[in-house]
Amino acid sequence: MKKHLKINVNGKVKKVGFRFCTMQAAYKHGIFGFVRNKSNGSVYIEAEGEEEALEHFLEWCKTGPIGANVSSVETEEGEVQNFASFEIKH
Predict the structure, then answer these.
(1) Can 37 be counted among the known catalytic residues?
(2) 36 part of the active site
(3) Catalytic: which of 19, 36, 69, 82?
(4) Res 1: pLDDT
């Protein structure tokens, strides 16, 4: 069953390629949605996919790319938006 998650990733997640690597991880796990930086220094992701794929994607979010230092990942379920792709928003 398809699920929609709103994900906030906190820690050292800017200037380490986090958004680009998030997009690659999303493609790998069949996740649709978007990623963007927030003004408070965190990264915000909306992700949709099958439950098992989302679990694997969330595990990736907890470490991120080399150079990142994730301190916490907060998730909240949302309404399925039926995204057609995964993109980086500015």
Answers:
(1) yes
(2) no
(3) 19
(4) 86
Q: Is 1 buried (19+), middle (13-18) or exposed (0-12) by CB count in 10 A?
A: exposed
pTM of the model: 0.96
**CATH 3.20.19.10 fits domain 2-79:** no
List per-block mean pLDDT (blocks of 10 residues) for the chain, which spans 90 residues.
96 95 98 97 97 97 96 98 96
The whole-number pLDDT of residue 69 equals 97
Given 8, 10, 36, 37, which residue is catalytic? Answer: 37
